[in-house]
Amino acid sequence: MKGLGARTNYLWRVIATGLSFVLFGIGGVLLSVTLFPLARLLSHGPDDTRRRTQYLMHLSWRVFIAFMKATGILTCELRGGERLLQPGRLVVCNHPRLLAVVFLLAFMPRVDCIVTTGISRNPFMRWPAAWAGYIASDDPQALVGLCAERLRQGHSLLVFPEGTRSQPGQPVRMKRGAAQIALAAGAEILPVTLNVSPTTLIKGQPWYHIPPRRFHVTVCVDSPLRAEDFVPADGSRSLAARHLTEHLERHFNTRIAQLAG
Q1: How far apart are CA 221 and CA 73, in angstroms?
Q2: pTM surpassing 0.90?
Q3: Cis peptide before 140 (omega within 30 of 0)
Q4: What is the pLDDT of residues 49-64, one digit of tens each?
Q5: pLDDT at 20 over 70
Q6: pLDDT reading at 1 higher than 50
Q7: How far apart are CA 197 and CA 104, in angstroms?
Q8: What is the 3-state secondary structure (H, E, C) of the chain?
Q9: CB half-sphere exposure, 225, CA atoms < 13 A
Q10: Is the dihedral of CA 66, 31, 57, 215 positive or negative?
Q11: Hey, what's the torsion of the CAs at 52, 25, 160, 94, to 10 degrees?
């Protein structure tokens, strides 16, 4: 009977995972042609549109996570979440799973993001992303300046410096873009570590390859760092970006090992 119960639970979680992906896709399309355009029509200017759209994004992802929790797919724990509510910070997160951005947006009512070319050109997502004030990554040379300007305006900005989803068991390796943005804006960096146990939804893995039990997501928000603390005596920005990136890599690798232990 125990074995039958375990198999039934596994089968249910496979079905619930499939339903979650359907909800992810269809829900995104429906919101893009209903609530997001309505929020724009009811807004008083671009700033109001941005705030309303970002808040709708936040609520939609909270509902999505609540659905996955209610169906037994996952459990979730947030540590230090009050730090995510402070504006004007560069939120830097590792990217271990497909749903990393979902969890961060679900915990942050207002935050700017960098979106891929695919999203900025998607017929359903391009306009909600633009109304939310998300920054397209189409022009890498201008990206640092655009992001730094948002931070100077007092916006929070979410970035994933790895550039792609990391592989389980491999150390975190980050590009220097996040450090360059923080240095250009003189902004505080808020390190956020996301850990998923057991491993699931990794890059290249089919959605139906789920773990033998529901997975647990831990989101750990640490104390902020000051970018200017990494500028050497000679004022070299390139050296500062390298030192800051190396510091962040050590921080994330240490925190991931702690959370996994």
Answers
A1: 23
A2: yes
A3: no
A4: 999 999 999 999 999 9
A5: yes
A6: no
A7: 17
A8: CHHHHHHHHHHHHHHHHHHHHHHHHHHHHHHHHCHHHHHHHCCCCHHHHHHHHHHHHHHHHHHHHHHHHHCCCEEEEEECHHHHHCCCEEEEECCCCCCHHHHHHHHCCCCEEEECHHHHHCCCCHHHHHHCCCEECCCHHHHHHHHHHHHHCCCCEEECCCCCCCCCCCCCCCCCHHHHHHHHHCCEEEEEEEEEECCCCCCCCCCCCCCCCCEEEEEEECCCEEHHHHCCCCCCHHHHHHHHHHHHHHHHHHHHHHHHC
A9: 24
A10: positive
A11: 120
- Structure-token pair, residue 243: 């030192």
Which residue is it, tokens 């300007």? 149
Which tokens go with 145? 């300046």
Report residue 23 as tokens. Answer: 């909800």
The residue type of 200 is T
Q: Which two tokens stand for residue 13?
A: 């979680």
